[in-house]
Design brief:
The protein contains 20 helices and 40 strands. The chain is α+β, with helices and mostly antiparallel strands. A six-stranded mixed sheet has the order 3-2-1-4-11-12. Strands 13, 14, 15, 18, 24 and 25 form a six-stranded mixed sheet that branches. It is globular.
């Protein structure tokens, strides 16, 4: 059933604030607006957010009550660290004996460099016994006298015994100071790294609290009753209350919004997302339907902040070509934007009359080998976008599309200088730019062991057409530009799921402990508004580090399947066959649920065992899971515990590295429950039983099992 309810996503960039409205049922884009980011307004970026929302509602004809979901992404925390605009942190270490020696060393965190020549403002005080009230008060007073605007409490092993940190934090809070207890930021061991992460969180806390209050008040005043969500750096969203506690989670969230859009709107299950702006391209990985996340490096040091693994290349749509000795020597890192020059391809034919190539130094200290055009209309930059248009790589209607004749005229003087034709010159320019991107793409494919047969390159951002089509053409990989690529980031914000990650170091973790971590993550997203029936939890147990990690995701409402988007049986078979690189006649249906169909084929190899690759296709015709060699078993929820026990026993391998249970995934209702992160058969089966507990006994269940070698 159609609805007038909408999901709103707002992306606050350094220059512009983009907002989109998406139909809450069909996920169709209904409207988009762009306003200048209001850094200098008395209400800060909150003013631009409210202005963008008002224009969006007016454009789409919706009322504030129609907003079912509202989220925004912001670069404010990242910018605060990059610009050194942070609060003075009062760090209070706790401990006696050897513990005191460890915490006193934390005072060295004041040496962290924010910007060249500017260090983190930090003052230190020590408390031997947190139960000594006067001593705690004296320590808080001491850091305040030294200028502390926010307090961090840190104690060895506080992840197991948090009472000391809580006592100090409570004393600071009584004085009206924002506080951070190190154990609240992460539950992983490592005093120095845990405290460093907490200190950076605290340094941006006052600024982020002020912004959160302004945005919250402004949205409420505008009449929107939907709770305000904020983009996290791992591709999910969190409530404003959670952001007030852990603003560090918004650092590096800019690229996360774009890949969230690719994941939810483009339904990418395996591949790379390349978000290209004018100056650079951010590259991130989607593997088996999930974004690749790792602990981020902040201020030059590793942290316990789990963020998208994004790798940036200094090549974008506005990147300028460099020449020397009659050939192209490179592209970028300077762009037309940095040089203050217009793109040649967006001029007119009249502007480009009598154009000739010369070389310039865009900024002091740059080499003087950047090629520009001096023409009747002035000076113009020769860019990646110019070359992509000249080669016909930019599709009709794209944000970066221009008149092909103008693009050819923009490249013609360069071609003459190189002694070749327009098409060859344009191709060489794109080769020079995309070669840099491809080196990172290849590294990420290797790092994450992506399946090249199914990995797709998806381009987002206004400059997507300048990179992805040419890269796909020269490498032979499948590539496409995301729909509405110029606003893929706010679309990602609008479609993002509530996400929470819980990590614990538990040596020899047993079933109950693993299930407890899972339950904690699930409860955390439900508490933030996720619909309980739709929460998915992925659990990973790393036996080398004894880390148990649970990542829970859920939507604020259960999303109904849009019948208009459902693919027919032939379309689903075609999608599976294309992914399997097989003749459709050789592909057969192995099992299915109401939401997914499992397809498989056989690959016979000389002198080697036959492989059974599998693809799981959803009702939209999108491949949601692929396995290079798997066993598929259909059963019911009632019989599944017994069936799974037998499957896991049969597929478990034993060797010098210990016991390795198979990678197990269950198709349940509309979900794919990924249990592949658990290597121990006992906890694996316990998690599987937890997934099955609320299911009707006759409900179909499909198990996809991969043996680990």
């Amino acid at each position: 059933m159609n609805t007038h309810r909408i999901r709103v996503g707002i992306d606050v960039g350094g220059t512009f604030t983009d907002a989109v409205a998406v139909d809450a049922t069909t996920l169709r884009l209904l409207g988009q607006v762009k306003v200048p980011t209001s850094h200098r307004h008395e209400d800060g970026v909150a003013h631009g957010i409210v202005e963008a929302l008002a224009r969006l509602l007016e454009q789409t004809g919706h009322a504030p009550d129609d907003v079912a979901f509202l989220a925004h992404g912001t670069t404010q925390a990242t910018n605060a660290l990059l610009e050194g605009d942070v609060a003075t942190v009062g760090l209070i270490g706790i401990g006696t004996g050897p513990g005191a020696a460890l915490t006193r060393r934390l005072a060295a965190l004041r040496k962290l460099e924010l910007t060249p020549g500017k260090r983190l403002p930090l003052v230190y005080a020590h408390v031997a016994d947190p139960d000594d009230g006067p001593a705690v008060d004296a320590a808080v007073d001491a850091v305040v006298r030294q200028g502390a605007e926010v307090v961090v409490a840190s104690q060895p092993f506080s992840v197991d015994r948090p009472e000391g940190e809580d006592t100090v934090a409570a004393a600071a809070a009584e004085r009206g100071l924002p506080t951070t207890a190190a154990h609240e930021i992460t539950s992983l061991y490592g005093l120095h790294k845990r405290t460093r992460t907490a200190v950076v969180n605290a340094a941006i806390l006052p600024r982020m609290l002020a912004t959160a209050d302004l945005v919250d008040a402004s949205i409420t005043k505008a009449g929107v009753s939907a709770p305000l969500m904020v983009m996290r750096c791992d591709g999910g969203v969190m409530t404003l209350a959670e952001m007030r506690r852990r603003p560090l989670l918004t650092v590096l969230s800019g690229p996360a919004a774009g890949v969230a859009g690719a994941l939810m709107r483009e339904r990418v299950s395996e591949g790379l997302f390349l978000e290209t702006g004018g100056t650079s391209t951010d590259i991130s990985v989607v593997r088996r339907g999930k974004v690749a996340v790792r602990h981020a490096t902040i201020l030059g040091r590793t942290s316990y902040l789990s963020a998208l693994d994004v790798r940036t290349v200094g090549v974008g749509g506005g990147s300028m070509v460099r020449i020397g000795d009659g050939r192209i020597t490179g592209v970028g890192p300077r762009s037309a934007h940095i040089a203050g020059l217009p793109y040649a391809c967006f001029a007119t034919l009249d502007d480009l009359r009598e154009a000739s190539v010369t070389t310039v130094r865009p900024m002091d200290g740059d080499p003087a080998d950047y090629a520009v055009l001096d023409a009747a209309g002035g000076r113009y930059a020769i860019t990646m976008t110019c070359a992509a248009n000249a080669l016909g790589r930019v599709p009709e209607g794209d944000f970066a599309r221009c008149d092909p004749a103008v693009a050819a005229a923009a490249i013609a003087p360069l071609a003459a200088a190189l002694g070749t034709d327009v098409a060859t010159a344009a191709a060489r320019l794109l080769d020079a730019g995309t070669d840099q991107v491809n080196s990172v793409v290849e590294a990420m494919i290797r790092d994450y062991r992506l399946d090249r047969d199914t990995a797709v390159l998806v381009g987002g951002g206004g400059g997507a057409a300048s990179v992805v089509p040419h890269l796909a053409a020269v490498t032979g990989q499948e590539g496409r530009i995301a729909r509405h690529n110029e606003v893929i980031s706010p679309i990602g914000v609008a479609l993002a799921l509530i996400r929470e990650q819980v990590e614990r170091i538990i040596p020899g973790a047993g079933q109950e402990q693993i299930l407890a971590v899972r339950a904690e993550a699930e409860a955390a997203v439900v508490a933030q508004g996720a619909a309980a029936d739709g929460v998915e939890v992925e659990v990973t147990v790393d036996p080398q580090t004894s880390t148990v990690r649970a990542v829970a995701t859920g939507a604020t409402e259960l999303r109904a399947q849009d019948p208009a988007r459902r693919a027919g049986e032939a379309d689903r078979l075609r999608a599976a066959a294309e992914s399997l690189k097989a003749d459709p006649a050789a592909v057969r249906v192995l099992a299915g649920t109401a939401a997914h169909t499992v397809y498989g084929t056989e690959v016979h190899r000389r002198f080697r065992a036959t492989r059974h690759p599998v693809r799981v296709v959803d009702a939209d015709g999108v491949v949601r899971l692929h396995a290079p060699d798997a066993r598929v078993t259909a059963t019911t929820a009632g019989r599944a515990p017994e069936v799974l026990a037998a499957l896991v026993k049969e597929a478990t391998s034993y060797g010098d590295g210990g016991v390795r249970a198979p990678a197990l995934r269950l198709l349940l209702g509309s979900r794919i429950a990924d249990l592949s992160g658990v290597l121990d058969p006992g906890p694996l089966l316990a998690l599987a039983r937890g997934e099955l507990r609320a299911r009707a006994s006759d409900e179909p269940v499909v198990a996809v099992v991969e043996v680990r070698t």
